[in-house]
Amino acid sequence: MRQLDDLEIDPVEDYMAIIRSLNDRIDKIEKEVKEKAEETKEVMLIRSITGFNYFSAMTIYASIGDDDRFPGPKQLCSYFGVVPSTEKSGLKVNHGPITKEGDNYVRRVLIQCAWSHVNNSDSYITEFFERLKRRKGKPIAITAAARKLTVAIYYILERGEKFRPF
Fold it and tell me: Where is the Transposase IS116/IS110/IS902 C-terminal domain (predicted)?
């Protein structure tokens, strides 16, 4: 360490310069994403749901891709992996944890948006979450809320209308 003192190098200032440079780059990318999102009607429709920002709405929309790809909301929920697994044996049907099919990153974004939604809005999804939370606990309730958000996303994209909380 004495050798650095002799060279009069301030490592903290060097690291701060790197951080400032990275922050400038991040700000530029965020601005570009926001501009692109504002140009995309479908992304702005998804953003009409409380809890979705530009990045999460773009992530969800990019994952969905072509609007005609999913014939109904059940297929979209299944694609995101927010549906319960099902085991059938004869006449007995057991539902278990979610299937976790599809892109894990997109599902995590959806779950985070669901948390933001239930904490910052008063909607039918929030009421559903509160009812289910008392019976099943927070983890199951938030996953079910994410599934309801996925259904809402399907219908707002299909109809071209903003989210209606009730």
Answer: 45-127
- This prediction has a pTM of 0.84
- DSSP 8-state code for residue 102: S
- Local structure of 150: helix, strand or coil: helix
- In tens, the pLDDT along 41-55 reads 999 999 999 999 999
In a domain, 90, yes or no: yes
How confident is the model over 1-47, as pLDDT tens digits?
Answer: 555 556 667 888 999 999 999 999 999 999 999 999 999 999 999 99
DSSP characters for 29-91? HHHHHHHHHHH-HHHHHHHTSTT--HHHHHHHHHHH-SGGG-SSHHHHHHHHT-SEEEEEETT
The number of distinct structural domains making up the chain is 1
Question: What is the total residue count of the chain?
Answer: 166
**Would you say 47 and 73 are in contact if contact means Cβ atoms under 8 Å apart?**
no
Q: In this structure, is residue 132 part of a structural domain?
A: yes
- Give the C-alpha separation, 42 to 36, whole Å: 11
Kindly state whether residue 146 falls inside one of the protein's structural domains. yes
Please check whether residue 14 lies inside any domain of the structure: no
Range of the domain at 59: 40-159
